[in-house]
Amino acid sequence: MSSSLTVTPAPPLTLPVTNSVTITEDDIKSYRENGYFVVPNLLSPSQLEQWRTIIFSAVNDRADAKYKFPIAGQGDSTNVDFEYYNNVFTQRINLWQSHNSVKQLLLESGSVIGKIAAELEGIDCVRIWHDQALIKEPFANPTAWHLDVSYWSFTSLHAISVWIALDDATLENGCMYFMPGSHKVTESRYYEENNELAEIKIGKNLSDVFTTYPELKQSPTIAVPMKAGSASFHSGHLIHGAGANMTPSRRAAMTIQMMPDNMTFNGKQNVITDERMKELKIGVSVFNDDNFNPILYKNS
């Protein structure tokens, strides 16, 4: 797909690409207790328009290609029913690899987004694992409860994602839902099972997660509607999902999945290309190459 990709030129970035954000010790304490943290108005109206222009252009250029490079089985280990999953959202992954404008945008955001992630997780360096545009099309299916880090090619207690609303995310069009504190349960399981976690497939049954984590079945959940330009950070171990889009309009978000420095390969392909998979060794290969996992933020 990469040879036929048409890249639409983007205008030079207008800096800064996000508002300045300062988080407090109480914010950090809340994140570590609940597993998520919401930043209202991460983007100003003009910044939001810049993000929308760059991201939507990159999504359009990708056409029907989820990835730029060949990945066996579409690299999709997150679901068990493609027909259902393909109507959960339009998903375009690692846009930074095919569009320099997206790469510049994400890296310029690092002094705010990466710094927040580092402070919330208590780490010194944050790398991009992957990015993804997630667009719930009109009348799209809900996203079942799941946790992220079990799909990824590394294992860490400090994996974290940011979810940036490019459209208003409402109860009607499929906003995010979190299960506060559930990361503590999945992190405990991580220790119990020798740093491995069972994958929770995203399928038709919203409650499949409780087969693996029955102790969470009575846990409270919270809907997190957000205005366009706002964002939420959540732990890679937090159970979360999203509602159905019950409207005739799309609901778009841009996400960045992040990891600490020097994570080692655990054997899962996830977003790794077929060619690179041949070079990686389980427990030995380290994801510290800026060509594959750029540094978003480093505390100097």
Automatic annotation (TrEMBL):
One of its GO terms (molecular function) is metal ion binding. Its cofactor is Fe cation. InterPro entries: Phytyl_CoA_dOase-like (IPR008775). PANTHER family: ECTOINE DIOXYGENASE, PHYTANOYL-COA DIOXYGENASE DOMAIN CONTAINING 1. This is Phytanoyl-CoA dioxygenase.
